[in-house]
Write a structure and sequence with these properties.
Layout (H helix, E strand, L loop, with lengths): L8 E4 L4 E4 L4 E6 L7 E3 L10 E6 L12 E4 L6 E7 L2 E8 L9 E20 L2 H4 L4 E5 L2 E6 L2 E7 L4 E3 L2 E9 L3 E10 L10 H16 L9 H13 L1 E2 L4 E2 L22 E2 H13 L3 H15 L9 E2 L10 E2 L13 E2 L10 H15 L6 H17 L18 H19 L7 H18 L1 E2 L4 E2 L14 H4 L8 H13 L14 E3 L5 E3 L9 E2 H13 L3 H12 L11 E3 L4 E3 L5 H17 L5
Antiparallel strand pairs: 1-2, 2-3, 3-4, 3-5, 5-9, 6-7, 7-8, 8-9, 9-14, 9-15, 10-11, 11-12, 12-15, 13-14, 16-17, 18-19, 20-21, 22-23, 24-25, 26-27, 27-28
EC number: 3.2.1.28
GO biological process, one term: trehalose catabolic process
Protein name: Trehalase
Length: 607
């Protein structure tokens, strides 16, 4: 059985990533890309679906020992775990060196700290998400596993042997000893990958992360949390194209044992745009430039058919399928790959994309004429479609509605474009679009606001609330001191907060639709946890309306939910006190950075 979601640490090479548990087991790894088939899929199944554990040898059928300590080495993505045993202490260093012309590699260095500790490496490779058992054989001193188009090569000085379709190595590590294990992926029809150089790869990886973090312009009181979040966002960036995945995993459940399980290994324009804004505001212009180039390639000459998400290289076809042979994380089924929401209409995406382009312009990102042309074309499309119902920010699989957040973000798109034209950087029908901006604003305030309760609502005519309404003051739609803004914030605190003070996205319980029939708001069965991004948004809003001490306490409470190496999933289950949802989640780490910046600017932080 896989560990708790928060028991995992992330390592990666900015093209794919692995999750390593406290028991020394790599339980998730897709090769050679984030969205490739998994070689290790124990995370969503059992040991039969692939894993790689290295740790102190243990007798019997009990659970393997968990590490006594673990940490990242400084500001890097190099993971260290240590075990104290009756025979001594051992350390394992796990990392994936950034690719510089070499094959993708996962390197594991076993280092003796004291005494002499018996160790075991258990490598069970299963291709195609645990479905295919590869042909494993020796190629000289190397061990290679081959299935279809894929091959994975194991290199180590330790003696290995095969048993029960698994590759083992039993060895003893003494103080000062170091034994390296490396697996490398290569297309099976090509020549073997070069022999790895683990020690040089470690130096290279540490140098890369040290140099990258040195660019960070944030030096406030929450620097540790901000830097760890920035490293995580960088790790979720697909370096060859600049695309940013929402998370490196699929089908980690929003409700344990439930069906709210989705594939997040794609680039959502919304998630990537807000990630871009955080990177820009902390000094990372190169990532912003790369993402803008990715966006222009993905959209191409067809902005009228803008998708809400694309593949990491800009692929449009992301058809959804279920993997019936995987029992799911803690029996949460179905396990899905691909994402059928790719073809939904989500009008808020136009606002997020335009806001990101606007921020790039405001922070001095080099001018790109096509980016400005794209922005003008997007508004041309939005002008004709902003008043249509859509599926909204949360990708509901129920009927389309006139979501208030979608309309607000349509206003943002038009507002930022009007400002671009007014600056003289672009041309367009500015008078007509000023009138459009005013029309959208007026309609939202008339149809999306409940005067009796003094709150905006999830959609026109709805009684339900939605945490995305917290973005109204942050996007400049209304000032923070507007009574309607304050009323909305307070209503969300009352009606969408959990007992421990975190925020749900929206009520998932049944409501009556326009057709008079009852059904879940999002068209899905079951409940979900508190959405961490929304909880950070609440902290932001509280600071904006002057309740800075309350904002600081909520923010620091949210920081306490991070696991021991500083990572957050998508949601928090207040009942089980566990992280849930895909992990680690960009949409959680971005608002962490944003709130830290806001609280630092306000001076609202503890000593």
């Amino acid at each position: 059985m896989a560990g708790r979601i928060e028991d995992y640490a992330l390592i990666g090479d900015m093209q794919t990533a692995a999750l390593v548990g406290t028991d020394g087991s790599a339980d998730w790894l897709c090769l050679p890309r984030f969205d490739s088939h998994a070689v290790f899929a124990r995370l969503l199944g059992t040991e039969e679906h692939g894993f790689w554990r290295i740790g102190p040898a243990h007798a019997g059928g009990g659970d393997p020992p968990v590490a006594d300590r673990r940490r990242y080495r400084g500001d890097s993505l190099v993971l260290e775990q240590e075990w104290d045993t009756p025979r001594g202490t051992v350390r394992i260093i796990d990392f994936m060196p950034p690719r510089e012309g070499h094959a993708p590699q996962l390197v594991r260095l076993v280092e003796g700290v004291s005494g002499r500790v018996p160790m075991r490496s258990t490598l069970r490779m299963r291709f195609s998400y645990g479905w295919v058992v590869p042909w494993v054989h020796k190629a000289g001193q190397r061990t290679v596993a081959v299935a279809g188009p894929d091959s994975v090569w194991l290199d180590t000085e330790a003696d290995t042997y095969g048993e029960d379709l698994t590759t083992y190595a039993d060895f003893t590590i003494g103080a000062g000893d170091r034994v390296a294990f490396t697996i490398s992926w290569q297309a099976s029809h090509r020549e073997p990958p070069p022999l790895p150089e683990p020690e040089e790869a470690l130096r290279s990886a540490e140098d890369f992360w040290r140099d990258w973090v040195a660019t960070c312009t944030y030096h406030g009181p929450y620097r540790e949390a901000v830097v760890r979040s920035l490293i995580t966002l960088k790790a979720l960036t697909y370096a060859p194209t600049g695309g940013i995945v929402a998370a490196p995993t699929t089908s980690l459940p929003e409700c344990l044992g439930g069906m709210r399980n989705w594939d997040y290994r794609f680039t959502w324009l919304r998630d990537a745009a807000i990630t871009l804004s955080s990177l820009l505001r902390t000094g990372y212009r190169e990532e912003a430039r790369a993402w803008r180039e990715w966006l222009l390639r993905a959209v191409a000459g067809d902005p009228e058919n803008l998708q809400i998400m694309y593949g990491i290289a800009g692929e449009r076809e992301l058809s959804e399928a279920e993997l019936s042979w995987l029992p799911g994380y803690e029996n949460s089924t179905p396990v899905r790959v691909g994402n059928g929401a790719a073809n939904q209409l989500q009008l808020d995406v136009y606002g997020e994309v335009v806001e990101a382009l606007h921020l790039g312009h405001m922070t001095g990102l080099a001018r790109n004429d096509y980016a400005q042309l794209l922005q003008i074309k997007l508004i041309g499309y939005l002008e004709d479609h902003w008043d249509e119902p859509d599926e909204g920010i949360w990708e509901v699989r129920g009927p389309r509605r006139h979501f208030v957040h979608s309309k607000v973000m349509a206003w943002v798109a038009v507002d930022r474009t009007v400002k671009l034209i007014e600056s003289g950087e672009a041309e367009g029908p500015v008078d007509r679009w000023r009138a459009l901006r005013d029309r959208i604003h007026r309609e939202v305030c008339e149809k999306g606001y409940d005067a009796e309760r003094n709150t905006f609502t999830q959609s026109y005519g709805s009684q339900e609330l939605d945490a995305s309404l917290l973005l109204i003051p942050q996007m400049g739609f209304l000032p923070p001191d507007d009574k309607r803004v304050i009323g909305t914030i307070e209503a969300i605190q009352r009606e969408l907060s959990t007992e421990d003070g975190f925020v749900m996205r929206y009520p998932t319980s049944s409501e009556q639709g326009e057709d008079g029939e009852m059904g879940n708001v999002d068209g899905l069965e079951g409940e979900e946890g508190a959405f961490l991004a929304c909880s950070f948004w609440l902290a932001d809003d509280l600071a904006m309306i002057g309740r800075v001490e309350e904002a600081r306490k909520l923010f620091e409470k949210l920081l306490s939910l991070r696991n021991d190496v500083g990572l957050l999933a998508e949601e928090w289950d207040s009942t089980t006190q566990r992280q849930v949802g895909n992990f680690p989640q960009a949409f959680s780490h971005v608002p962490l950075i944003d709130t830290a910046l806001r609280l630092t600017a306000s001076g609202a932080y503890g000593v």
